[in-house]
Amino acid sequence: MIRLLVIAIVMFGAAVAASADESRVPFPLVPKAKGEACVRDTDFMRTNHMELLLHQRDDTVHEGVRPEKTRLTACLDCHAVKGASGTPITYKDPKHFCRTCHDYAAVSIDCFSCHNSVPEKSEAARK
Amino acid sequence: MSNFEKAPTCETGPVNRRRFLSGLIGAGTLAVAPGVTLYKYAEAAVSSKVRWGMLIDTSKCKSGCTKCIDACATENGLTSKDRPRTDAQWIRKVDLRDSKTGRTQSLPVMCQHCAEPPCVDVCPTGASFKRADGIVLVDKHICIGCRYCMMACPYKARSFVHETLEDQKPHAPRGKGTVESCTMCVHRVDAGGRPACVEACEAAEHGAMVFGDLNDPKSEISKRLASYPSMAIRADLGLDPGVRYQGLGGGR
Fold this sequence. Notes:
The complex is a heterodimer of chains A (127) and B (252). By secondary structure, chain A is mainly alpha-helical. Chain A has helices spanning 2-20, 42-63, 72-79, 97-105, 123-126. Chain B folds into two domains: 2-44, no CATH class; 52-246, Alpha-Beta Plaits. Chain B has helices at 2-5, 15-25, 41-44, 67-76, 118-122, 148-152, 186-190, 196-203, 220-227; strands at residues 30-33, 36-38, 52-57, 91-97, 104-110, 128-130, 136-138, 159-160, 179-180, 209-213, 230-231, 243-246. The longest helix of chain B has 11 residues, at 15-25. Chains A and B meet through helix 2 and helix 3 of A and helix 7 of B.
């Protein structure tokens, strides 16, 4: 009898959760990026962005290859999240684009211990 | 979990594969797989055909002038914590005085970008390396901060970052726990420019620094090296530095 009751409660709970949201799993709120398309499609980027970054870093540091689209600064240009003051927020803020997922997945990032986590101030000056 | 389930395999390979492919086919854009395009690799990559170097005319370098140091700090975001013992120093001015004659000389000293760099020899991880075009750099992704290179460098050219940094320049990433030194403004050189110190010296109308390709006999630096006596600091070590000095030494 108790077992039946437990099952009923669990099922009721599941029904309520399903009606409120399609999934019971909390997802990170990924901020929307600027521009139309990323360098690759979203699914690819979600799984493999670190491979692209690693590949790019070796090319840049050792071979001097500095492409416009696949550099880390280009990522930051599109994925910058503006804070309350209207300026892009740094990696210290949990709402930073990279942090939304990385906090969720409990994966730490080392990039921003050396690299700046906001776009260059004078974006126009670089172009 | 539908958003996270799809896991397409990464189609890009390590540097070596790219190098191999571009070597086979040569310059130009090349599509190796749907969605993967190799850009004009051979044109963008550094080449051992050039060797970047600098010639410093000590007779034109003014004692007390710190234009090159200031320009370096601004360009690379080298902020001082007001702690001279640990502040990063990529370029410094050295004043010399001949005790017999009283003749004084002033010269900037930075990473000498040796052809045979001792910092590269001693690096246990391969972080300290020489680019094909002769620029000696630290790959801070690999650097473990052991500081062997700082001990090996006879020019005292390298600094260790002791403290957490913020708001670095996008073209000059710097971080605590890594060693760094003059990069010969590699980001400018790759874009066809000259190092910030050279431009600042020229803007101050001193013109004591010349930057150029040591392998090109038609470049200004090569012409001047061919016409005037010049020397490398600690030439006795046989490191073949890319930075040469004119008018140094005097009586010797």
